[in-house]
């Protein structure tokens, strides 16, 4: 295996980003704040993308071994952040919400491959489930199905993503967008940029 177990993503790496966030002056209108959000998200999705790619290349013994590595990443990035500032905590919560969908997508793809249908169909169904029925389980399931298709090489139609009302589905789509970029260009995001 090219990357040792437990080394795809580490507590230290996540905590370095959180330390940087603690030191930043957040301004919702600032490009720097938006860049920090996306760098933190992208850094974690790059690790998820590498696990998917290594599984596809036969680097893992089996699907269970790849899933165990995804679980390690999940434990790190979804752990409660020790941040006092409410605005920064909200930012981390948004990143974690986005990562939930990316992690489920990776697991689903490794276990079952790409879903039936199209990315657009699943995203529209997810948005409808959230808006009309407030059925978040169904909305997440559709986002994950869309994600497996993104992993399989389909484009994430940004015009559909932009139509989605702000809410959980929009956060989950952020995670899929980040995962798609990471799969296309899995470069490491440097924390000291």
TrEMBL record:
Under what name is this protein listed?
A: DUF2150 family protein
The root-end lineage is: Archaea, Methanobacteriati, Methanobacteriota, Stenosarchaea group, Halobacteria
